[in-house]
Design brief:
By secondary structure, this protein is of the alpha/beta class. The protein contains nine helices and eight strands.
């Protein structure tokens, strides 16, 4: 990756890595939309008998997930699974606001899971990565029990969640053998620019830890699964640059990677399209999940 941020002061980097700077600073209405849609999706899943909520997938109290599984097809095929990891700069949000795509996924015949993880500062970024990898490994081991296809697991994430999804798909790591595709939305893939900004106050990263937790700096990306990388039109230049450059690195390593910008969407609302077949992101994600 190129490093234009190295010549910037901390205030400039702060603005460049502040997604809300593109929407007037208030992202609460978008979180409210996550909550509203997630509440409806969860209620629908429960009513249909397709939801398993608050499943413990690790030792920490926060290692929980919500899982939605459609019935097995008439042909007897178990559905693929799309695992979603929420954003919030590793320090906000939870699975409770993150099942908004479950209804769309179920309608498309795709199982859907939303992960929780311990938030910073109670956990380091490295520990959060390991919790997410543990959750995917846990799900894979229980595919037959829950009724989805263990050989067709895709991971998706938004913002910091896209970083975590990429870290789960990273070749040579514990969850990578089980991740067959990835949808990375509005992500950050090189973390060092955050050091010295207020974003890092809860994270406590130094330059070395930031580099170690950066999928864009992985020694070898060969074997990374087929991927969608995208972002909204109304995002900062740095989020767009990081997305473009990580996608290029994946392509250079031989990964089939679809890359695009979503018109009229911002950092916070683009993810609402995740499994909506009538949108470019939703159609691309569903096609990717079904292809594995």
């Amino acid at each position: 990756m190129t490093d234009p941020w190295r010549t910037w002061d901390s205030a400039t980097r702060e603005r460049a890595y502040s997604p809300s700077s593109c929407i007037g600073g208030d992202y609460r209405p978008f979180v409210a939309a996550y909550v509203e849609r997630s509440t409806a999706a969860r209620a629908q899943g429960v009513a249909q008998g397709l939801a398993r909520l608050d499943l413990a997938c690790g030792a920490a109290p926060s290692q929980r997930l919500d899982l939605f599984v459609p019935p097995t097809s008439a042909a007897g095929e178990a559905p693929p699974l799309l695992v979603f990891i929420h954003g919030g700069y590793w320090q906000e949000l939870s699975k409770n606001e993150s099942v908004f795509a479950a209804s769309d996924a179920l309608a498309a015949g795709v199982a859907f899971a939303a992960l929780d993880y311990t938030l910073a500062p109670a956990a380091s970024v490295a520990s959060i990565v390991e919790e997410c990898r543990q959750a995917i490994t846990w799900l894979h081991a229980r595919a037959a029990e829950f009724g989805f296809d263990a050989a067709r697991i895709a991971v998706a994430g938004s913002s910091a969640g896209a970083h975590l999804a990429a870290m789960c798909a990273l070749p040579g790591t514990a969850a990578a053998p089980f991740v067959r595709a990835a949808a990375l939305v509005s992500g950050i893939y090189a973390l060092e620019p955050l050091v010295g900004t207020s974003i890092n106050d809860a994270l406590g990263l130094d330059a070395a830890a930031a580099r170690a937790a950066s999928p864009a700096l992985a020694a070898d990306l060969r074997g990374f699964p087929p991927t969608v990388v995208c972002w909204g039109e109304n995002e900062t230049g740095e989020f767009k640059r990081q997305g473009r450059e990580f996608a290029t690195a994946l392509q250079d390593a031989g990964t089939p990677c679809e890359v695009f910008e979503v018109p009229a969407r911002n950092h916070f609302d683009v993810i609402l399209d995740l499994a909506d077949a009538d949108t470019r992101l939703g159609a691309a994600t569903l096609a990717l999940v079904r292809s594995v």
